[in-house]
């Protein structure tokens, strides 16, 4: 099965670090968050990736072009007047990665439609290139097959960030309490599965996938939901990036499902 990764945005809310590279290439523990996402899916046997690039797309292409060198020891030998390179302790993932320039200002739906030829007529997965989580991809796929709908999105209760004030109908404060997992609404966290017919729901480059196409699926009762109860975190801001990196450095990254 193939995974489409949306990785073409400008990353304006984390512009402190995204001025020189696309947000999916910002590093957590020395590796791009894009790599972390791919490792999550690879843990469940998904090893074919289609990366929808846009802003500074050449950075993504160049990184994968050198990936073999990133993960191996290398000797550069100039002693005989030549530039000889010997690669030691070779290590590479069992991945097939297609990086597609889907345009600088293309919306999410347009980016997805532009890679249709690389997906073919088969069920595919879709996610964003800026969030990690310990989502059970196998259970997600089973849910999609069981529901038999055109699409399935992963839902998550992101909770309340602050303590909660409970107010009665009379407007008087009744209690202060700590936040709980039951505070807040369910949100779409990516980690989605779709049937290829969904491409027909996308008009063109200016289509925002989360609006017209998904709303149409909802209206037609063709969109199922998979509830994720574990860890999930996006990287919209520098503070969120630092939170993710802190977990990684402490050896407590919940999304690190691989050995």
Question: Can you lay out the helices and strands and say which pair or pack?
Answer:
Elements: E1 2-7, H1 15-18, E2 27-28, E3 31-32, H2 33-43, E4 48-53, H3 57-65, H4 67-70, E5 73-77, E6 84-88, E7 96-101, H5 108-114, H6 116-119, E8 124-128, E9 131-133, H7 137-147, E10 151-157, E11 164-167, E12 173-177, E13 186-188, E14 192-194, H8 212-219, E15 223-227, E16 232-234, H9 238-249
Tally of DSSP helical segments: 9
The Rg value, from CA coordinates, equals 21 Å
Q: How many strands in all?
A: 16
Q: Which structural class fits the helix and strand makeup?
A: alpha/beta
What is the beta-strand fraction?
Answer: 25-35%
Classify the helix fraction into a percent range. Answer: 25-40%
N-to-C span: 22 Å
Largest sheet: 8 strands, mixed
What letter string, H or E per element, gives the SSE order?
EHEEHEHHEEEHHEEHEEEEEHEEH
Chain-averaged pLDDT: 89
In one word, what is the shape? globular
Describe the structure.
This protein is α/β, with parallel strands linked by helices and 259 residues long. The chain has helices at 15-18, 33-43, 57-65, 67-70, 108-114, 116-119, 137-147, 212-219, 238-249, and strands at residues 2-7, 27-28, 31-32, 48-53, 73-77, 84-88, 96-101, 124-128, 131-133, 151-157, 164-167, 173-177, 186-188, 192-194, 223-227, 232-234. Strands 1, 4, 7, 8, 10, 13, 14 and 15 form an eight-stranded mixed sheet that branches. A two-stranded antiparallel ribbon has the order 2-3. It has a two-stranded antiparallel sheet with strand order 5-6. A hairpin with a 2-residue loop joins strand 2 and strand 3. The longest helix has 12 residues, at 238-249. The protein is globular, with a radius of gyration of 21 Å.
